Amino acid sequence: MKALYNILLSIGLVLLGINIFGLFKTMRNPDIYTEEYRIRNRLNDVMIPYPAIKKMLHRNVGETDIDFAYRINKVVHDGFAHYWRNEGIDKYHLRVPVWENYMLYAASYIKPKQYLRYEFSDYRKNLERGAGLCSAHAIILKGVMMENGIKAELLDVGKQHVVTRVEFDNRTAYIFDPDFGIAVPHDTAAISTNPELVREPYANMADLYYPDAVDPYTTEKMVKIFGMKKYVYEVNNPFEFFSYWAKWIVPLLLIMPYCYGKLFHRGRSTQSY
After folding, report:
1. How far is CA 258 from CA 45, 266, 267, in A?
2. Residue range 40-54: average pLDDT?
3. Is the link from the previous residue into 51 a cis peptide, with omega within 30 of 0?
4. How many Å apart are CA 152 and CA 73, to the nearest integer?
5. Less Cβ crowding at N or C end of the chain, within 10 Å?
6. Considering only CA atoms, which of 239, 212, 206 is closest in space to residue 103?
7. What are the φ and ψ backbone dihedral angles of 255, each rounded to 5 degrees?
8. How many contiguous H segments (helices) and E segments (strands) does the chain have?
9. Do the beta carbons of residue 125 and residue 27 sit within 8 Å?
10. Sign of dihedral through CA atoms 102, 104, 107, 112?
11. By C-alpha distance, which of 20, 28, 6, 13 is closest to 80?
12. Three-state SS annotation for 176-192
């Protein structure tokens, strides 16, 4: 039994050490700021560093809901890279690193389809990593809006692009696209009836890409997909939230038998006198 307690103690201390090490690490690799020069896809893809961007997400005094949504839409666009490539799985921590959450890291080997390139439910974790697809951009915008009492939801447009629908005063709703930094001042019903409403906001799509970018989204493509059916995009993984608590609890549970054994042995030794 003593040997088992020692093994559990060792595992618990290792996991606890990994967690503590992770407190001093960030998932945002600084190379993400220059990655665009190599892949030549989006121009000026990510310009705001982390953690400076977190201060920019705070609401300014006197800022209206609409002004706040427009500004945060642009901030997320400027501070988050459109990147989800296999070669960046570990470089840019698309796989959650072991020091960030060893449970999610282990899950990437158990269920790679879901966890190898993992999109966080917690918008703060997506923001820290700084790389993801349109859905990750939209998750961040939604999270900031909700934290400030503004109703927001994610929409998958034609199963090809994810945006954020933001509702103001339970009457007016706009579509925000932080992936491209574009806002459409119309609600989904009007856009579905007349997709041409998005043509003007998306008119300068060519200016967002390198001239040699492969298969860039165009103005015509955006008009086309906004005419398709729209779906509510859900991102809510209970295991993620559980794991961020459990990753601390598990090491403590592993250490407890050793501590109990020591106390029990000491108690018996005291009683023998």
Report:
1. 51, 12, 14
2. 96
3. yes
4. 12
5. C
6. 239
7. -80, -30
8. 11, 7
9. yes
10. negative
11. 28
12. EECCCCEEECCCHHHHH
Alpha-helical segments (H) within 194-237: 219-226
- Residues 6 or more apart whose CB falls under 8 angstroms from that of 204 comprise 219
- Per-residue pLDDT tens digits for 6-30: 899 999 999 999 999 999 999 999 9
| Average pLDDT across the chain, whole number | 94
Burial zone of 216 (CB within 10 Å; 0-12 exposed, 13-18 middle, 19+ buried) = middle
- Which pair of tokens denotes residue 240? 């993620």
Cα distance between residue 37 and residue 250, in whole Å:
43
DSSP annotation of 205: G
Whole-model pTM? 0.93
What are 29-35's contacts with CB under 8 Å, separation 24+?
Answer: 29/91, 29/92, 29/93, 29/130, 31/91, 31/92, 32/81, 32/83, 32/92, 32/130, 32/131, 35/81, 35/83, 35/88, 35/92
* pLDDT on residue 171: 81
Distances (CA, A) of 180 to 46, 208, 273: 11, 8, 76
The residue type at 101: N
Spatial distance between the Cα atoms of 191 and 201, rounded to a whole number of angstroms? 12
Residue 165 forms beta bridges with which residues? 153, 175
CA distances from 267 to 94, 138, 166, 206, 252 (A): 49, 58, 62, 76, 22
CA atoms within 13 A of residue 51's CA, in its CB half-sphere: 7
CA angle 50, 156, 207 (to 5 degrees): 60
Kind plus residue range of the DSSP H or E element containing 164: strand 161-168
CA distance 159 to 250: 39
